[in-house]
Amino acid sequence: MSPTTHSKVLLPHEINQIEQIFVDVLRGLGLSRNCEAAEAIGRRIISCYQGGTRESGALKHMIGYYKSAAVEENADSLTRGTREVSIQEITGQPLSPDELDMLQRTFDRACIWCRIPRSGKRAENLARHIANQFRNGVSDEAALFDNAMWREQTSRSSFYQSDA
């Protein structure tokens, strides 16, 4: 287990990894380091990293780097009214920013691992499941993720590739 799994301290090699992801994202989006968007991206990368997400692709996905490509690929479904599921909308209760961030990270990771599109019934059901588990007292991020993964692996919806 990494010494920084639940720590706010970042080691030099972790900072280098975060820097590389940050530079890749800025380059891909055509942004400079000296803009508000870059600052927000940097904060989000660090938050997700400290929350336990270490994979470059997962971090980029969680900060929305791939959203523009997804919007172009799914333009037809977007014009029909399908939109991305939001944990904040699903919970329907006041949560602290840390709780909301943790629930969103859990949902994002489960979607990545299970290849669930961020819109549609399957994503909505997963988000509701995570929110219900949290309401029922499961407040550990790893436990929520494990529970979400188990649900997806054992549910009939995991046999479907898309919500189409």
Q: What's the rounded overall pLDDT mean?
A: 77
Distance between the termini: 40 Å
Could you describe the largest sheet, including whether it forms a barrel? none
- The global form is globular
Number of strands: 0
Give a nutshell description of this structure.
The protein has 164 residues and is an all-alpha fold. It has nine helices and no strands.
Furnish the topology, listing elements before pairings.
Layout lengths: L11 H18 L6 H15 L5 H7 L4 H7 L1 H5 L7 H5 L5 H18 L6 H15 L5 H14 L10
Helix pairs in contact: 1-2, 7-8, 7-9, 8-9
Structural features, described:
This protein is an all-alpha fold and 164 residues long. It is globular, with a radius of gyration of 16 Å. It has nine helices and no strands.
Record keyword descriptors for this entry.
single chain, 164 residues, mainly alpha
